[in-house]
Write a structure and sequence with these properties.
By secondary structure, the chain is mostly helical. It has 4 helices and no strands. Helix 1 packs antiparallel against helix 2, helix 1 runs parallel beside helix 3 and helix 2 runs parallel beside helix 4.
């Protein structure tokens, strides 16, 4: 049941974020005033950025529940995959589209070229967060539910002559 809840939550958030990313990109294809189109892009891109962090936090909490109930860490790494995918989309696809739009309409792109480097560092940092979360969850589970001790039969250790 917990696996299905996690997967459903993952699918819902992926759909919502895909909409935000696509709608932000569609503003760059607007035929209106370029400055207004870029403002629309920035609004929807920022909304997608905030949504990504909120969705990732909720998925990570959900992954902890899945791990606590099933003792399998796959949900942690599915959350990381979700995060890494949407970070890549935002900084590589949307970022490149925004820079192309800015250059085509003589708008200063600023430091948008640093986006892919930032994406790599964010992904590496979040991988560390997921790994640390998995480590803490595993240690907490072992403290709450310690493994049953195994007792050896002392009679088997005696060597008779």
């Amino acid at each position: 049941m917990w696996n299905k809840i996690f997967l459903t939550t993952l699918a819902i958030f992926a759909t919502i974020l895909a909409f935000f990313m696509y709608y932000a990109w569609s503003w760059l294809r607007s035929i209106g005033n370029p400055a207004d189109a870029y403002q629309g892009f920035e609004f929807w891109s920022a909304l997608g950025w905030a949504g990504l962090w909120i969705a990732t936090l909720i998925l990570l909490l959900n992954a902890n529940l899945v791990f606590a109930k099933t003792e399998r860490p796959w949900a942690f790494w599915a959350t990381f995959g979700f995060f890494a995918f949407f970070i890549t989309v935002k900084f590589f696809w949307l970022g490149a589209a925004a820079v192309d739009f800015q250059r085509a309409h003589q708008i200063d792109p600023g430091s948008a070229i640093l986006g892919p480097f930032l994406a790599v560092f964010i992904c590496i940092g979040f991988a560390g967060v997921v790994f640390a979360n998995h480590y803490v969850a595993e240690r907490s589970r072992l403290k709450i539910y310690p493994p049953e001790p195994t007792f050896e039969d002392p009679d088997n250790d005696v060597i008779e002559k």
